[in-house]
Amino acid sequence: QVQLVESGGGLVQAGGSLRLSCAASASIFSFNTMGWYRQAPGNQRELVATITSGGSTNYADSVKDRFTISRGNAKNTVDLQMNSLKPEDTAVYYCNAVSLTIWGATEYWGQGTQGTVSS
Fold first, then answer.
1. What distance in Å separates the CA atoms of residue 8 and residue 60, rounded to the nearest whole number?
2. How far apart are CA 59 and CA 45, in angstroms?
3. Residues forming beta bridges with residue 95, ordered by sequence position
4. Assuming Cys at both sites, which of 3, 16, 78, 114 could form a disulfide with 12, CB separation 3.0 to 4.6 Å?
Protein backbone atom coordinates (compact mmCIF):
# COMPACT_ATOMS: atom_id res chain seq x y z
CA GLN A 1 0.00 0.00 0.00
CA VAL A 2 2.80 2.43 0.90
CA GLN A 3 5.01 3.46 -1.99
CA LEU A 4 8.09 5.69 -1.98
CA VAL A 5 9.34 7.16 -5.24
CA GLU A 6 12.63 9.03 -5.53
CA SER A 7 13.43 11.61 -8.15
CA GLY A 8 16.06 14.24 -8.87
CA GLY A 9 19.12 12.11 -9.42
CA GLY A 10 21.53 12.80 -12.21
CA LEU A 11 25.07 13.61 -13.19
CA VAL A 12 26.89 16.66 -11.86
CA GLN A 13 30.46 17.83 -11.59
CA ALA A 14 32.28 18.04 -8.29
CA GLY A 15 31.16 21.09 -6.38
CA GLY A 16 27.74 21.03 -7.95
CA SER A 17 24.35 20.37 -6.42
CA LEU A 18 21.48 17.95 -6.69
CA ARG A 19 18.08 18.06 -5.05
CA LEU A 20 16.43 14.72 -4.44
CA SER A 21 12.78 14.31 -3.65
CA CYS A 22 10.92 11.40 -2.14
CA ALA A 23 7.20 11.22 -2.77
CA ALA A 24 5.19 8.96 -0.52
CA SER A 25 1.76 7.53 -1.19
CA ALA A 26 0.78 8.69 2.28
CA SER A 27 1.39 11.79 4.35
CA ILE A 28 4.95 11.89 5.64
CA PHE A 29 3.47 12.59 9.04
CA SER A 30 2.20 9.03 8.95
CA PHE A 31 5.79 7.95 9.55
CA ASN A 32 7.86 8.33 12.68
CA THR A 33 11.06 8.79 10.71
CA MET A 34 11.94 9.35 7.09
CA GLY A 35 15.40 9.43 5.68
CA TRP A 36 17.84 9.01 2.89
CA TYR A 37 20.36 6.21 2.57
CA ARG A 38 22.89 5.58 -0.14
CA GLN A 39 24.85 2.67 -1.51
CA ALA A 40 27.90 2.83 -3.71
CA PRO A 41 29.16 -0.19 -5.65
CA GLY A 42 30.99 -2.56 -3.34
CA ASN A 43 29.81 -0.73 -0.24
CA GLN A 44 27.09 -1.31 2.29
CA ARG A 45 24.06 0.90 2.36
CA GLU A 46 24.72 3.80 4.70
CA LEU A 47 22.65 6.41 6.44
CA VAL A 48 22.77 9.88 4.92
CA ALA A 49 20.13 11.85 6.80
CA THR A 50 16.91 11.37 8.72
CA ILE A 51 14.03 13.55 9.80
CA THR A 52 11.38 12.73 12.37
CA SER A 53 7.73 13.60 12.20
CA GLY A 54 8.53 16.36 14.69
CA GLY A 55 11.18 17.86 12.42
CA SER A 56 14.34 16.72 14.20
CA THR A 57 17.17 15.95 11.79
CA ASN A 58 20.28 13.82 11.88
CA TYR A 59 23.15 13.60 9.41
CA ALA A 60 26.07 11.37 8.70
CA ASP A 61 29.34 13.09 9.49
CA SER A 62 30.41 12.77 5.88
CA VAL A 63 27.55 14.95 4.63
CA LYS A 64 26.93 17.27 7.55
CA ASP A 65 27.02 20.94 6.53
CA ARG A 66 26.67 19.98 2.87
CA PHE A 67 23.35 18.13 2.75
CA THR A 68 20.00 19.25 4.10
CA ILE A 69 16.96 17.06 4.63
CA SER A 70 13.61 18.77 4.83
CA ARG A 71 9.92 18.29 4.41
CA GLY A 72 8.76 19.38 1.00
CA ASN A 73 6.05 21.89 0.28
CA ALA A 74 3.68 19.01 -0.34
CA LYS A 75 2.70 16.99 2.70
CA ASN A 76 3.78 13.77 1.04
CA THR A 77 7.36 14.69 0.15
CA VAL A 78 10.77 14.76 1.79
CA ASP A 79 13.69 16.41 0.04
CA LEU A 80 17.44 16.12 0.23
CA GLN A 81 19.41 19.14 -0.92
CA MET A 82 22.96 18.08 -1.72
CA ASN A 83 25.52 20.83 -2.14
CA SER A 84 29.27 20.86 -2.65
CA LEU A 85 29.11 17.37 -4.04
CA LYS A 86 32.19 15.18 -4.12
CA PRO A 87 32.95 12.13 -6.25
CA GLU A 88 32.64 9.98 -3.14
CA ASP A 89 29.00 11.03 -2.93
CA THR A 90 28.32 8.95 -6.04
CA ALA A 91 25.78 6.30 -5.10
CA VAL A 92 22.25 5.10 -5.49
CA TYR A 93 20.17 7.12 -3.06
CA TYR A 94 17.22 5.44 -1.40
CA CYS A 95 14.28 6.96 0.41
CA ASN A 96 13.33 5.25 3.65
CA ALA A 97 10.37 5.51 5.98
CA VAL A 98 9.71 3.88 9.32
CA SER A 99 6.33 3.58 10.94
CA LEU A 100 5.77 2.57 14.54
CA THR A 101 2.34 1.42 15.60
CA ILE A 102 0.91 -0.69 18.36
CA TRP A 103 1.20 -3.53 15.85
CA GLY A 104 4.94 -3.15 15.46
CA ALA A 105 7.51 -1.44 13.28
CA THR A 106 7.32 -1.32 9.51
CA GLU A 107 10.06 -0.09 7.18
CA TYR A 108 9.59 1.02 3.58
CA TRP A 109 12.11 1.61 0.80
CA GLY A 110 12.01 3.30 -2.55
CA GLN A 111 13.63 1.91 -5.67
CA GLY A 112 16.47 4.40 -5.56
CA THR A 113 17.82 7.11 -7.80
CA GLN A 114 21.36 7.37 -9.12
CA GLY A 115 23.45 10.34 -8.17
CA THR A 116 26.78 10.59 -9.97
CA VAL A 117 29.46 13.17 -9.26
CA SER A 118 32.28 13.46 -11.76
CA SER A 119 35.72 14.74 -10.90
1. 20
2. 15
3. 36
4. 16
Residue type, 11: L
Residue 26 to residue 2: CA distance in whole angstroms: 7
pLDDT value for 79: 97
Task: Please state, in angstroms and rounded to a whole number, the distance separating the CA atoms of residues 111 and 5.
Answer: 7
CA dihedral (88, 89, 94, 99) in degrees, to 10, reads 100
Beta strands in the chain (DSSP E): 4-7, 10-13, 18-24, 33-39, 46-52, 57-59, 67-71, 77-82, 91-101, 104-109, 113-118
> What is the residue-level pLDDT of the chain in tens, covering all 119 positions?
799 999 999 999 999 999 999 999 988 888 999 999 999 999 999 999 999 999 999 999 999 999 999 998 888 999 999 999 999 999 999 999 999 888 889 999 999 999 999 99
Closest to 68 in 3D by CA, of 53, 87, 90, 51: 51
Distance between CA atoms of residues 113 and 59, nearest Å: 19
